[in-house]
Design goal:
By secondary structure, this protein is an alpha/beta fold. The chain has helices spanning about 5-10, 25-35, 80-95, 125-140, 170-180, 195-200, 220-235, 255-260, 265-285, 295-300, 315-320, 335-350, 370-385, 410-420, 425-435, 440-450, 475-480, 485-500, 515-540, 540-545, 550-575, 580-605, and strands at about 15-20, 40, 55-60, 65-70, 75-80, 105, 110-115, 145, 185-190, 240-245, 285-290, 325-330, 355-360, 390-395. An eight-stranded parallel β-sheet has the order 9-8-7-14-13-12-11-10. Strands 2-1-3-5-4-6 form a six-stranded mixed β-sheet, covered by helices on one side. Helix 4 (about 125-140) packs parallel to helix 5 (about 170-180), helix 7 (about 220-235) crosses helix 9 and helix 18 (about 485-500) packs antiparallel against helix 19.
Length: about 625
């Protein structure tokens, strides 16, 4: 799918010119590369260039500083780090820097990044990821973590990424080199203990398997395999930092390990493994970090990461390797005080936490703006107050990575504006920046976020699930009860959203709003049929239920259109592997609507007394 910048973006952009003598060496490669895509050129402003600006750059002593001073056709950019220089370029392209009015921003964060999940079905294509890197640079990001559980080729390990679209060594080197040209650090984010179900399901790894997803601690072959991972990443990425994962290992030591060794305290087992892996990191020149949740979970009686009563014994804290940094991940809390409390808990362990917030893309069809701003906003504010120096924003792909991940740039733009200012981001400024950097309308992308809350007032809204069985409608009925009126209201809400999005369907530069429109239409069609069906069945109206057969073809057509649109979106972003998982879900819907047609025919003729799936009321809450 070819994506072009919108007319709005072209209209707003001013061409920028830079010269070697007024540009520090650390910026020249970045500006040259950005000039391949954006109106940025080396040299003086040509005579008659119209809106051209001559840009000079100066390194500032103050870290995190960004200042633009414009006088006529000339502008001077003062910057604390290369990320601020790139963000200043983005501001200039966006028309945010006026003549005679200093433009100033600053950020307290020394490392400001994202983490992209490439393990939950979708592995982003290298060329598409390069586009991401350009846009991230112009928004002010300087770090990218690639979350790869097994989706990279590992020499001598043919089951790494088998049929999962793994990154080759050459691809990873290409990504790393391109990011470095833009002054973005690529940090491997792997797994060295848990979250390895896709790998451990293969019999070849039975010797290093504790449970279905956790590696066997203490086994020599476990550490031989982990060392292979570290050696591989050392060859493909220039960074000295390594994220080892090690989160959510709930059943650590409870499987084959227990069979071989008996019960062992979870804290002891976790620290033993971490110490060994940190040794391997030192051997290969890595500064390691891990997710911090298991320490808090092991100290909680109910295994909760955010349990205020969690107790981590001092003896356990003492044995945490000094070299291992802790990443505090939290995408759920709307209170800055909660983040502040947990930041302090990490510091009491002798660790300066790295913050992992979230830009919500998981179990979503589109970026979810409401929950992102409700949680990331307070998180950023707490980190600012606590003087946390490093923050990144995860973008998970749980449940199949079926989100249009490009839509997350609306969230990345918002989080960047929030991190570079003490105030809430302004919609007008975001609209200009998003149009120039990403090529679309920020407001329209936020409108599409209503796919997740298109219906207000129904038990706080619903989370739609296209993959739910269309006869049972289990998830909807669990959320909203056994109420045809609730389904009808949902259908009306999605229909209204589809009408709003239809006029914006040509906005496809970053986040395909035509796909969002087609998705909203499919939900409207689906829930309308479900509402009518449940209402007729509850009234025991056989004839009315049977007449609904004529609506099934239209619903199926709308869902097929969604599948076709989804396929185009997926293949424009990702490698083809993983698409089969989502297509299988669409195939299930086709089969179940055919079955519904048969059942309604039988029910209408009196051949069956009931439709069993509709006999279930809503479960008690």
């Amino acid at each position: 799918m070819v994506r072009a910048k919108t007319k709005q973006a072209k209209k707003q952009q001013t061409k920028l010119f830079w010269e070697t003598k007024t540009t520090p060496a650390e910026l020249r490669g970045m500006l040259g590369e950005l000039g391949r895509t954006y109106p940025i050129a080396k040299g003086p402003v040509p005579t008659g260039a119209g809106t051209g600006l001559q840009v000079a750059f100066e390194k500032a002593d103050e870290p995190g500083t960004l200042e633009c001073a414009r006088r006529g056709a000339g502008v001077t950019v003062r910057y604390g780090a290369t990320a601020q220089a790139a963000r200043a370029v983005g501001a200039l392209l966006s028309g945010l820097v006026g003549s005679g009015r200093p433009y100033r921003e600053s950020t307290p964060f020394e490392s400001f990044g994202i983490m992209l999940d490439c393990s939950r079905n979708a592995v982003m294509k290298v060329d598409h990821f390069k586009r991401w890197l350009r846009q991230l640079a112009l928004l002010g990001y300087d770090t990218v973590m690639l979350y790869t559980e097994d989706t990279y080729e590992l020499p001598g390990e043919p089951y790494f990424g088998y049929q999962r679209g793994p990154y080759s060594a050459a691809e990873l080197k290409e990504v790393d080199a391109y990011a470095a040209e833009l002054n973005i650090e690529v940090i491997p984010c792997i797994q060295t203990l848990g979250h390895l179900a896709n790998l451990l399901r293969h019999g070849a790894y039975s010797d290093v398997k504790d449970t279905s997803s956790v590696m066997l601690v203490g086994e020599k072959k476990t550490y031989e395999l982990i060392e292979k991972m570290l050696v591989h990443w050392r060859k493909v990425c220039r960074t000295d930092r390594m994220h080892l994962g090690m989160d959510e290992t709930h059943d650590l030591g409870r499987g084959r390990y227990m069979d071989l060794n008996g019960y062992r305290d979870g804290f002891e087992l976790f620290n033993q493994h971490l110490a060994k892996v940190v040794q391997l990191c030192k051997k290969h020149g890595y500064d390691p970090m891990i997710w911090s949740d298991m320490y808090f979970r092991l100290g909680s009686k109910n295994g909760d990461y955010y349990d205020a009563k969690s107790k981590i014994p001092p003896a356990v804290v003492k044995k945490i390797p000094r070299a291992a940094e802790l990443v505090y991940w939290d995408y759920y809390h709307a209170d800055a005080a909660f983040y502040s409390d947990w930041i302090e808990r990490h510091r009491k362990m002798g660790k300066e936490p790295i913050m992992g917030s979230g830009i919500w893309t998981w179990s979503r069809y589109w970026y979810d703006h409401r929950i992102t701003t409700r949680t990331a906003g307070p998180c950023i504010e707490a980190c600012r107050q606590a003087q946390v120096k490093e923050i990144f924003f995860t973008q998970w792909g749980d449940n199949g990575a079926y989100c249009d991940h490009d839509s997350a740039f609306a969230g990345m733009a918002w989080c960047a504006d929030r991190a570079y200012s003490d105030d809430e981001p302004g919609a007008a400024q975001l609209e200009k920046r998003f149009a120039a950097v990403c090529g679309g309308s920020w407001k329209s992308h936020i409108l599409a976020s209503d796919l997740h809350e298109a219906v207000q007032g129904i038990d706080g809204g619903i989370q739609p699930d296209m993959w739910d069985d269309p006869i049972f409608e289990t998830k909807f009925r669990q959320q909203c009860g056994d109420r045809p009126a609730a389904m009808a209201k949902a259908a009306a809400g999605y229909a209204a959203l589809a009408r709003k999005l239809k006029g914006k369907a040509t906005d496809r530069a970053t986040g395909d709003l035509n796909h969002a429109y087609i998705t909203a239409r499919a939900f409207a069609s689906r829930y309308d049929l479900s509402a009518r069906l449940l209402a007729a069945y509850r009234k025991k109206d056989r004839a009315g239920a049977a007449r609904l057969r004529r609506k099934i073809a239209g619903v199926s057509a709308d869902i097929r259109a969604m599948e076709e649109s989804f396929r185009g979106m997926w293949l424009s972003h990702n490698k083809p592997e993983g698409l089969e998982t989502i297509q299988a879900r669409f195939g299930m819907l086709e089969a179940r609507y055919r079955e519904l047609d048969r059942r309604l025919a039988e029910y209408g003729k009196g051949e069956v007394k009931t439709i069993a799936e509709l006999e279930y009321g809503a479960p008690p809450k």
